[in-house]
Amino acid sequence: MRVLVIEDERGLATGLAHGLAEDGFVADVAYDGVDGLWRAVNEPHDVIVLDIMLPGLSGYEVLKRLRKAGVWTPVLMLTAKDGEYDEADALDLGADDYLSKPFSYVVLVAHLRALLRRGAPTRPAVLAADDLTLDPASRRCRRAGEELALTAREFTLLEFLLRHRDEVVSKTDILTHVWDENFDGDTNIVEVYVGYLRRKIDAPFGRHTIETLRGAGYRLRSAGR
Fold first, then answer.
1. 149 and 183 in a common domain
2. Is residue 95 part of a domain?
3. For the segment 73-125, what is each residue's pLDDT rounded down to a tens digit?
4. Is 52 left (phi over 0), alpha (psi -120 to 50) or beta?
5. 174 with 156: CB under 8 angstroms?
6. Domain end: 118, 146, 172, which one?
């Protein structure tokens, strides 16, 4: 099995490559994001170990460009210790797994073997309702062919609504899946973000895609004209 390690800490990168070779892997190393991206796109690998903090291009940018290019090689992201937001961002961008530094080499190999057993993921389907489209892989949203700029939270909310289009979803459902099941802030945050979405995906196009059903929740309609 061939592994690409993209890590700028040379001691760590060479140590990983040596250990992986001892364990029967073929290990390639890139020390910056630019070289790592080129090798990930142009050379065949079964799994990629990708650090977040890289010179040239960050690990986030490498991952984003990989998925946009249609490269679905499993990616194990190396994140900062206690970097829960790093982990969330990595998974949102298409990482398949993550490990926080410092990590055990034995645990890293176990994660790699699990990813290899799982195989490369299939490309996420583009979600659509009428002329509104959302591509989870490239993180792009369009309406009537025009690209829309959404924040990360707006994108996640719209993705959830599109996955349940023509269904009524409650405020509790939205809070659980878009925020957190233990969310203890102001629940009016849902109305706020639905309003943000309407101003971006509906108002400029004269559409009424997202309905409010008083006492029940919200519904994104397939035909929102």
1. yes
2. yes
3. 899 998 875 555 666 777 777 788 888 888 899 999 999 998 888 876 666 67
4. alpha
5. no
6. 118
Query: What CATH number is attached to the domain comprising 197?
Result: 1.10.10.10
Our CA angle for 141, 142, 143, nearest 5°, is 135
**Where in the sequence is the domain holding 46, given as residue range(s)?**
2-118
Q: What is the 3-state secondary structure (H, E, C) of the chain?
A: CEEEEECCCHHHHHHHHHHHHHCCCEEEEECCHHHHHHHHHHCCCCEEEEECCCCCCCHHHHHHHHHHCCCCCCEEEEECCCCHHHHHHHHHHCCCEEEECCCCHHHHHHHHHHHHHHCCCCCCCCEEECCEEEECCCCEEEECCEEECCCHHHHHHHHHHHHCCCCCECHHHHHHHHHCCCCCCCCCHHHHHHHHHHHHHHHHHCCCCEEEECCCEEEECCCCC
Which pTM value belongs to this model?
0.58
For residue 195, the tally of other CB atoms under 10 A from its CB is 12
Q: For residues 65 and 169, state if they share a domain.
A: no
Pairing of strands 75-79, 47-51: parallel
225 located within any domain: no
First-to-last CA distance in the chain?
51
